[in-house]
Write a structure and sequence with these properties.
By secondary structure, this protein is mostly helical. It contains 5 helices and no strands.
Length: 84
């Protein structure tokens, strides 16, 4: 049934397991913690959960933009304490 639906959508290249990778990557981008991702996947180890996580260009760009915003806030800048 899923194979038929994917073919009708013009995406016969997608395998059912690809949806697991997509779902976990989107959940991570939405802010799910590693513990939450492991729970969603039913994985007990971080290494197993990381198999399903993928970096995306858009998310990397959003992270960089947010880091720029945070760095521009005076309260976010912390001086480095030098050791004597």
């Amino acid at each position: 049934m899923l194979r038929r639906a994917l073919t009708r959508m013009g995406r016969p290249d997608i395998r059912p397991h690809d949806l697991r990778h997509t779902g976990m990557t989107l959940a991570a981008e939405a802010g799910a913690s590693l513990a939450e991702l492991k729970n969603r996947l039913g994985q007990s180890t971080t290494q197993a959960a990381e198999i399903y996580l993928h970096a995306t260009v858009d998310h990397g760009r959003r992270i960089a933009e947010r880091m720029d915003e945070l760095a521009a806030e005076p309260s976010s800048v912390r001086p480095i304490k030098r050791r004597a």
